[in-house]
């Protein structure tokens, strides 16, 4: 409904940044990534010097998860522009790090993660990016440490799954089981995490889990 209202308002105020941001974020939250890409592109066209417009457009391309060429490259271009326009914007740099990682440009992602880690060592998004890069680079002890820190900062299902996966891969199977069991004891209705646990157990040959 919010999207419909916003689109009606846009007919009266085309190119309005607040409306475009609101509509695009709503589309992104609903998984309408192609629509969000179009909305944020319109915002970029209307306000090309607005860093936030470029950042949201980059996020929309990352969230699209379509072909591995153009969308991820577009995400990098837009994130880089966001950083150029707002060089102190931590959020823009985080998006750039994720865009680089999505495009398998791991060295670049590591550089961004290190820069952010030095400036914001306890920020959840920074800790998560650091862990994701470490996981891709097969630095599993560092990935485990990062995701443990993320869980300790703001316990959530995504980081629990990331931590458990890294623990399983590192051979810390019982620790991984404990990571997931603790979460599921508190959130028994989390079917995604329960299915994730089952898949990890299958790969580890623990068919009784």
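^ Assign residues to that structure.
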């Amino acid at each position: 409904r919010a999207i419909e209202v916003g689109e009606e308002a846009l007919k009266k105020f085309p190119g309005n940044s607040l409306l475009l941001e609101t509509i695009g974020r709503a589309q992104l939250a609903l998984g309408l990534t192609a629509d969000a890409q179009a909305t944020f592109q319109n915002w970029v066209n209307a306000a090309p010097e607005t860093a936030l417009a470029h950042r949201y457009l980059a996020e929309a391309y990352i969230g699209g998860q379509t072909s591995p060429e153009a969308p991820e490259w577009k995400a990098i271009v837009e994130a880089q522009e966001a950083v150029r326009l707002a060089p102190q914007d931590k959020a823009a740099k985080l998006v750039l790090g994720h865009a680089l990682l999505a495009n398998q440009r791991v060295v670049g992602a590591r550089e961004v993660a290190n820069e952010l880690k030095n400036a914001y060592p306890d920020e959840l998004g920074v800790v998560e990016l650091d862990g994701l890069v470490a996981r891709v680079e097969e630095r599993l002890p560092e990935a485990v440490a990062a995701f443990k820190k993320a869980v300790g900062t703001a316990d959530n299902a995504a980081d629990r799954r990331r931590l458990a996966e890294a623990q399983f891969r590192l051979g810390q199977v019982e620790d991984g089981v404990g990571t997931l069991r603790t979460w599921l004891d508190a959130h028994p209705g989390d079917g995604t995490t329960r299915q994730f646990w089952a898949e990890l157990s299958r790969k580890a040959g623990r068919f009784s889990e």
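The chain has a mean pLDDT of 92.
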